[in-house]
Design brief:
Two copies of one chain form a homodimer. Chain A is of the alpha/beta class. Chain A folds into three domains: about 50 residues, lambda repressor-like DNA-binding domains (434 Repressor (Amino-terminal Domain)), CATH 1.10.260; about 120 residues, Rossmann fold, CATH 3.40.50.2300; about 140 residues, Response regulator (Rossmann fold, 3-Layer(aba) Sandwich), CATH 3.40.50.2300. A six-stranded parallel beta sheet of chain A has the order 2-1-3-4-5-11, with helices on both faces. In chain A, helix 5 crosses helix 12 and helix 10 crosses helix 11. The first copy, chain A, is elongated, with a radius of gyration of 25 Å. In chain A, about 55% of the residues are buried. At the A-B interface, helix 3, helix 4, helix 5, strand 2 and helix 6 of A face helix 3, helix 4, helix 5, strand 2 and helix 6 of B.
Chain lengths: ~350, ~350
């Protein structure tokens, strides 16, 4: 196979340009006429040229790859975050390689190690789950790393994160202002610090209103399936809630499915509020009242920070915090007054 | 920074084991007592050891990375496919790096080039959109490549794909058997060969039944938002359909939202069938009748083929085809007879 290896020189010869020009066109550096660019790309394509990025990285030229480690791909929230980062990276001339950890600290450690070992120029770690020791070792390695939605152990690594507490307070206050008194809550996954923040806000708000009742809290895991189950549990209570706040939109959709399966109408018989503002939240019936993170801005901030870190700029202790925002749609309304009850 | 570089030798000294043992534990090769394993991992963690994968790849040891190029992360279908491949890869001792192309042939070419240039051991390309020339150049490069859901230009590269035609026939026949005569269809994205297959099946079936009416076909793009719009368009017709088959589940959910917004009940007033069987299809109300691809088996097949190709086994012209399956749930039912019409 090595005898067949196509090099920059082959491409340059076929395109009738210099090797430097081929290299710069293929790496998207410098400016060229569209004709030159097209000729180089066509020649590279025709010869089946593939850039030897590993070799390039070894020679000290940076690869154009940013790495991102996320807990899972199937969560719409993480998928949106990865898309936002990929878009921002692309605008800056980088590709984004996405790896999943399946929420396994050892897999996280392995992936981070492999990526920083040479695959990626910089690494975005979404919701790091490794120990404080692991974060400290990353700090010592001085590799360009940005943590996203980290609320855990103190660190000097740069962090980009979005609020979950204030947005959740706003969601519960919205339901209280509509006149709800029995408000259920379905938590996120146990290991998630974002889930902890959302529960903390709900609890604080309900305690302050003198309405705290632990029977109204059900454990969840961010999935729609668990929303269906927990929704049925809450709606089977002797005194069921008139509103349910779920720690994710998928869980909220599960609650709506459970309510509808019991013949209840949302929001007339039950108000439902989610968290995340995933794309389907605006295009469902009823459309979903929810709390949104500014995903695009977060993606931009992660990529900006990584690029600064790679350039040797000081990013130690940088913390970029974004607010969350309550978005009121159709799924929340005042409770029926008892006389109207169906 | 190089003076601080932590090597296998440092880890071995701290853990009190040989360098070979450290290497094998970190690469998940060979068998060790849990105690040895824990000691090595703890030492590596404590020292902040990160494997130098690029250097390893240069020395001729293969990296443990498989690459996957998908059109986008936000589609639940592609996210599920990536998860299935990541799971299968993980079981075989590989990591999966996922890249997106945003359906841009040039970005696809760049990513494929970068990955095969050294980042990845083998590459899974989902719905390749490059020209026949690009596929031919991949063939000539003899790199381990597997194409997924490729229905385009003939190629000798190995292909894993799932049927869209027979499953769509089954969906339309199911609606005909329930007694529907006016059956609408919302297409997938224009560039998708899977979308073409689904439309072809619908058209063939409706023509054969003498029920073809092009006014019942609306262009879509696989999204929920477009499902809402196209749903309203179809339901505003003078003679609206009593059933709608959508080329994706998200689009089907959009149709259901549009129907409900118009005061119609699904399936009593309108039957809706989707395609993909995304996780939420089973946990919505009504649950969604849809067509499923065997995603887990597809993920396994892709990874098996890539590993065979990497090992030098003959995979030229291998075609692994999976059937699709109609899954009947609550969203499809016989039409109301006219006298019963609300």
């Amino acid at each position: 196979m090595s005898s067949e290896k196509v090099t920059l020189a082959h491409v340059a010869r076929l395109a009738g340009v210099s090797i430097i020009t081929v290299s710069r066109v293929l790496n998207n550096k410098g400016r060229f006429s569209e004709a030159t660019r097209a000729r180089v790309l066509q020649a590279a394509n025709q010869l089946g040229y593939v850039a030897n990025t590993a070799a390039r990285s070894l020679r000290g030229h940076p690869t154009q790859i940013l790495g991102m480690v996320i807990p899972e791909l199937v969560s719409p929230y993480f998928a949106e975050l990865a898309r936002a980062a990929a878009d921002a990276a692309s605008q800056m001339g980088y590709d984004l390689a996405v790896f999943t950890t399946s929420r396994d600290p050892e897999r996280e450690r392995e992936r981070v190690g492999a990526l920083l070992g040479g695959l990626a120029d910089g690494l975005i770690i979404v919701v790091p789950i490794g120990s404080a020791g692991f974060l400290a070792s990353l700090e010592r390695s001085r590799a360009p790393v940005v943590l996203v939605n980290h609320f855990g152990a103190p660190t000097h690594l740069p962090v980009v994160r979005a609020d979950s507490f204030e947005g959740s307070l706003a969601a519960v206050r919205h339901l209280l202002a509509l006149g709800h008194r029995r408000i259920g809550f379905i938590t996120g996954a146990a290991h998630s610090s974002q889930a902890t923040e959302r529960l903390r806000a709900y609890r604080e708000c309900m305690l302050a209103a003198g309405l705290w009742d632990e029977r109204l809290v059900r454990p969840g895991d961010f999935t729609q399936q668990r929303g269906v189950e927990a929704g049925h549990e809450l709606l089977s209570l002797e005194e069921p809630p008139t509103a349910i706040f779920a720690a994710s939109d998928l869980t909220a959709f599960g609650v709506i499915a459970a309510a509808q399966a019991r013949g209840l109408q949302v929001p007339q018989d039950l108000s439902v509020v989610g968290f995340d503002d995933i794309p389907t939240a605006a295009h469902s019936h009823p459309s979903l009242t929810t709390v949104a993170h500014p995903i695009q801005a977060m993606g931009q901030a992660m990529v900006d920070l990584i690029i600064k870190a790679k350039a040797g700029e000081q990013v130690r202790d940088v913390l970029v915090e974004f607010p969350s925002e309550l978005i009121v749609r159709e799924s929340s309304a005042p409770p029926r007054i008892p006389g109207e009850k169906v």
